[in-house]
Amino acid sequence: MALGRPSKKYKGKRQKIKDKVKIRAKVAESHRQARKASRKFAATGRVRKEVDPGVPNNHPFKAQILAEMEKQKLIAKEEAEAKRAACTKAAKARKAAKASKGASQ
Question: Residue spans with biased composition (Basic and acidic residues) (predicted)?
């Protein structure tokens, strides 16, 4: 009797009923979780962002920190508006170039 090598005989695709049932249960559980996740995503429409906890009332320099935060928000808003304006300007330029190229042909 030789030990070591497995036989080269064809292994059938038959499964025990117990194994089939386990696989079906795992697939059903996976599908259930996917449906639940999709419902959760559809309800919110997007991934929820974490909310900034703010500054505690008893912080010694609360007013200055809040003023600084407001300045940063304004700067970020202005930068976003400038970026948006630049993108729209570039898009209009591309569209005009495309239209002039199409008209010349």
Answer: 18-32
